[in-house]
Amino acid sequence: MVSGEESQTIEPEFRPLDPRVVRLWRLNYLVGFGVLLLMLLAGAVTAVLARPALRPWAALLWCGTAALAGWLSYWRPPRLYRAWGYRIDAQVFETRSGLFFHVSRLLPLARLQHVDLERGPFERIYGLSSLVLHTAGTHSASITIPGLDAGEAVRLRDHLVAIGGDDAV
Amino acid sequence: MQSEAAVFEGRLHPLTLAFAAYTAVRRLILPAIPLLVFSDRRLGPAILGVLFVSALAQALGRYFSFRYRVEGGELVVRQGILERRERHIPLERVQEIRIEQGVLHRLLGVVDAQVDTGGGGGPEATLSVLSRAEAERLQLAVGERVAKVGEAAASPNEAVVVRRLGVGELALSGLTSNHLVSALALAGLLWTLLDDFVSEGALRRGAGAVFGTTRRVYEQDVWSTVALTVLGAALLLLLAVTFSVAGAIVLYYGFTLTLRGDDLGRRYGLLTRRASSLPRRRIQVLEVEEGLLRRFCRLATLRADTVAGRTDGDEPKDQWRGVLLPIVPRAEVEELLPVFLPDLEPGPAEWRQVSRLSVRRGTVKGAAVCALAASASAALQHSAYGLWPLFMLAPLYWVNLRRYRHLGYALGERYFRTRRGWLSRSTHLVPIRKVQEVEVRQNWFDRRLGLATLVVDTAGQAYTGGGPLVTNLPLEEARRLAATLARRAQRGMAHGSTRI
């Protein structure tokens, strides 16, 4: 049912994110898990003070969680990075992502409502930016592309804004 | 700009003040009771007086400052005394105009009007209250201007009646709606009422009497107990059915669907009259819904979503707002569709099925549940008779086969259709130019089988049950389909003929 004129368009290869995003994600994970582990530690200390018999269990539990968190922060980012990709041609913007749940999302460029450029403090450290593409949709009204090189993100945004944006619904 | 002079301007009906006073009284009744009972004799009435007067003053300010006009392709609404606010609503962006009339409104000949552009967060302009003539003038003016902008109106002033529903059809719609839910709701309501009005001692004595009688009857005769239980259940069901039928008739009484130019008009209600006009090119998704009972009676409900139906994650409580036609014989749906979607491809849709693996997958999933249930019940009963859930396997396979046969999609040049479900079915039609985003999703099981789920996102899917979705598509097909949909959506936009 796919007519010729549509399949004729040559689809460009998926482009990867900036490799620095792996380090950014690791940092994000470490900070997030760090807060969690600190809270756990506080809980464990309180428990041990109340009932000293719990000490070996609390230590074991905390160390186990810490090891798991450490391993996850080391293991997951590079795989996520390899799963991520985006491509753009004259008509459609497409992203793919996900380790366990693969999702690819296609956005007709005319559907673009507005584009946000976001730079968190950690992203700034690594010279990265996130681009958020908004549509008027219901379930997934925005697509976030994390970890783009700051200059590349600005270029991509300007390009998207220039070609997209007929917001009549 | 001379030619763009105001088409007309107006203000609220003087009865606005009466309604504001009425609302204020109604809002104050509940807080009034503790205030009057617990505070001292002067303070309570004083607080109430201040609250009431401030509400009234607000209404006065609103009434005297509120102006609206249609001018230069815009609806301009101005209000406020201290902080003046002027809102310009481009008529080409108006999604829907709704007119509502409660019983009091009807007695006094006034209406509430709401103008929606889908900006999110409710209607853009609420005109409450207007005289009925004024509201009709507004609706006509806006409708005409919208039609002119859209260049789609043939004869904007002639309304053609598409469908009128009689009491019989509405009763049928009530009969085929979901009774169990209403029966449970009713039982719950009765229970709370009982709790509120009967003191605990009396309740306990009553319960004791009922239990005593039941036991005596049971000891005398088992069959009369069974008969009593059945009778009780039947009575409850009858009550639920009555409520359901009455509810459908009260809500949709005199349902009339009209077409004026490009505007779909709906008008219904026994107590509260509701009217809305919806430009049909605003329809984002149309759903043909066949609930369990309706499906076996060969009936369907038509629902539509516009951008105005966009809610942020919440299931809307006013489900009836999305209903285009509460009840229609399934066989007549196909010929009615072009009324709502004028550029629909003629002829029957070419349905394509998904991968046959979906049967195996559904059966395996169900079999796992069956096996769990069987082992649990066998363990509890300590006998092989506990394995009865395993007999469900054959019907399970059959159900999955039926579901597979009905699952599918049809891709046209301008419309994309999906259908799913077997016991209760739902068919979605999406104008491809309204597609906002297409997603291909694969979970772990999908990946093992090389399948994927295709989800089509549009603006506003509040009333159409989650929108179009096809599961169990072969991955390559899903990818190709997604790319085709996205490209056609882009092209449909670029051509400009379908811009608005």
Keywords:
heterodimer; A: about 170 residues; alpha+beta; PH-domain like; 2 domains; three-stranded antiparallel β-sheet; 6 strands; elongated; disordered N terminus; B: about 500 residues; 4 domains; seven-stranded antiparallel β-sheet; 14 helices; 21 strands; about 45% helix; disordered C terminus
Strand content of chain B: 25-35%
Mean pLDDT of chain B: 82
* Major sheet attributes of chain B: 7 strands, antiparallel
Q: Any guess at the CATH architecture of the largest domain in chain A?
A: Roll
Low-confidence stretches of chain B: 149-155, 310-315, 495-500
Low-confidence stretches of chain A: 1-8
Helix fraction of chain B, binned, reads 40-55%
Work out the strand percent of chain A: 15-25%
Molecular structure report:
The complex is a heterodimer of chains A (169) and B (500). Chain A has five helices and six strands; from the N terminus they run αααββββαββα. Chain A is an alpha+beta fold. Chain A folds into two domains: 61 residues; 79 residues, Roll (PH-domain like), CATH 2.30.29. A three-stranded antiparallel β-sheet of chain A has the order 1-2-3. In chain A, helix 2 runs antiparallel to helix 3. The two termini of chain A are 27 Å apart. Chain B is built from 14 helices and 21 strands. In chain B, the strands form four sheets. In chain B, strands 7-6-5-11-10-9-8 form a seven-stranded antiparallel β-sheet. A seven-stranded antiparallel β-sheet of chain B has the order 14-13-12-18-17-16-15. The longest helix of chain B is centred in the middle third of the chain and has 31 residues. The chains are: A alpha+beta (169), B alpha+beta (500). Strand 3 of chain A pairs antiparallel with strand 19 of chain B, so a sheet runs across the interface.
